[in-house]
Amino acid sequence: QAGAFFGTWLEALIRTGALSRIEARFIAKDGRRVPILFSRTAVKDEAGELQHIICIAKDMTGYVREEDAVDSAS
After folding, report:
1. Which of 4, 15, 46, 63 is the most exposed place for a label (fewest CB within 10 A)?
2. What would the pLDDT profile of 19-58 be if each residue is shown by its tens digit?
3. What's the Cα-to-Cα distance from 6 to each of 3, 22, 38, 41, 73, rounded to whole Å?
4. Within a 10 A sphere around the Cβ of 10, how many other Cβ atoms?
5. Distances (CA, A) of 37 to 22, 45, 46, 51, 62
6. What global pTM score does this model have?
7. 44 — phi, psi (to 5°)?
């Protein structure tokens, strides 16, 4: 599962240069599904060759709980 996910985003990142606000769920050691929000940027050299990838990942667990509570109250 993770291999397919990372392969897909890597291809898109190389093609576009940046991916923002990609949502995914990962399984924690205790079995919980953890919602993660990713943003990634490709850093290329002068020749356009990929040198680095900067990735920011944010655990969205608290935000998802708040959304669920608002939805339940409606």
Report:
1. 46
2. 888 888 888 999 999 999 989 999 999 998 989 999 999 9
3. 5, 12, 12, 14, 36
4. 15
5. 6, 27, 30, 23, 12
6. 0.59
7. -115, 155
Cα 49 to chain centroid distance, Å, stands at 23
How would you classify residue 14: left for phi > 0, otherwise alpha for psi between -120 and 50, otherwise beta? alpha
56-71 pLDDT, tens digit per residue, is 999 999 876 556 555 5
Higher pLDDT, 74 or 11: 11
Q: Please give the angle made by the CA atoms of 44, 46 and 52, to the nearest 5 degrees.
A: 20
- How many residues in the chain? 74
Beta-strand ranges (E) seen in 4-49 are 18-27, 33-44
Q: Which fold has domain 2-73?
A: Beta-Lactamase (3.30.450)
